[in-house]
């Protein structure tokens, strides 16, 4: 019966069929939960009671007025700083491995392998690396003669615990960023570099005037992923430090989980989630504005 319909009608049915299912899934699992999250953020729901008492903006006032909640955002700064360094290193390795280097495919695989490992497994792995007494890092430092550093508690010092955790993310995600940059570099025509060489340009000049402008949008994309990842980090501090020492490594996402599942304050946790979403949007909007302005 469907085959007897006019071709244009059949086409409309097919388009509607292909579009409606993704839209239905998007509305069911993305937009509806987001709207419900916003609604719950104005209540004092405990997660169990059928009654969701409306309390207005009280949860949002608590988020911004309580330094124990909003103040943990400063712990995410270390992940942002290390993420920027990670992108610089990824660009460097991408440029090197895009050249005529022997065994470059092996090195590409070697750098990308950490990304495919499970995040919890990586956290446990580095738990042994950073162990104060029996850790491989302190043992190596001791063998190299750095006796003062060989007794460092890398996960127990409030001053740099977040940078220690962020360095694990550096090791894990640098290869992923490198592959993205490498794909962008391979899309640049080699004729441009050959013409630049004929004009007498050196390697640095080629990088500044040819490579960077051509991968600028990819840099913007990776910075987007870096910023969102830095603001939403959870697994590494949760597994390795539980937010310690003395809450020094607790991230905002950990605070949301704790508020919801430990203190059963789903209304406040929902408000915190909305604040995180808005914060991500604001930071990314500023980043995009600055990068587009610089690109123009």
TrEMBL record:
It is found in: Cell membrane. GO terms for cellular component: plasma membrane. The chain crosses the membrane at residues 12-32, 77-97, 109-130, 160-184, 263-286. Its main location: membrane. InterPro entries: ABC_transporter_permease, MetI-like, MetI-like_sf. It comes from the Bacteria. SUPFAM superfamilies: MetI-like. Keywords: Cell membrane, Membrane, Sugar transport, Transmembrane, Transmembrane helix, Transport. The keyword Transmembrane helix applies. It is a multi-pass membrane protein. GO terms for biological process: transmembrane transport. Residues 76-287 form the ABC transmembrane type-1 domain. Belongs to the binding-protein-dependent transport system permease family. This is Multiple sugar transport system permease protein. It comes from Paenibacillus prosopidis. The lineage of its organism: Bacteria, Bacillati, Bacillota, Bacilli, Bacillales.
């Amino acid at each position: 019966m469907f085959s007897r319909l006019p071709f244009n009608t059949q086409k409309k049915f097919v388009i509607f069929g292909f579009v409606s299912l993704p839209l239905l899934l998007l509305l069911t699992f993305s937009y509806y939960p987001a709207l419900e999250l916003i609604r719950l953020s104005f209540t004092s729901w405990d997660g169990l009671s059928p009654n969701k008492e409306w309390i207005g903006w009280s949860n949002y006032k608590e988020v911004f007025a309580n330094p124990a909640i909003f103040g943990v955002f400063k712990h995410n700064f270390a992940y942002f700083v290390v993420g920027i360094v990670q992108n610089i290193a990824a660009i460097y390795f991408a440029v090197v491995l895009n050249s005529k280097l022997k065994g470059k495919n092996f090195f590409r695989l070697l750098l990308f392998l950490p990304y495919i490992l499970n995040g919890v497994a990586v956290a446990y792995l580095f738990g042994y690396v950073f162990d104060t007494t029996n850790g491989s890092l302190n043992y190596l430092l001791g063998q190299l003669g750095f006796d003062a550093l060989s007794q460092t508690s890398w996960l127990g010092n409030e001053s740099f615990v977040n940078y220690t955790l962020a360095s694990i993310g550096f090791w894990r995600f640098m290869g992923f960023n490198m592959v993205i940059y490498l794909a962008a570099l391979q899309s640049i025509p080699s004729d441009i570099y050959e013409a630049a060489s004929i004009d007498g340009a050196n390697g640095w000049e080629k990088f500044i005037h040819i490579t960077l402008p051509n991968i600028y949008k990819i840099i913007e994309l990776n910075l987007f992923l870096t910023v969102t990842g830095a603001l939403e980090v959870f697994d590494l501090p949760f597994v390795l430090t539980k937010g310690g020492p003395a809450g020094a490594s607790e991230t905002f996402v950990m605070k949301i989980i704790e508020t919801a599942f430990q203190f059963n304050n789903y209304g406040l946790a929902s408000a915190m989630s909305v604040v995180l979403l808005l914060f991500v949007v604001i930071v990314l909007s500023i980043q995009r504005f600055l990068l587009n302005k610089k690109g123009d």
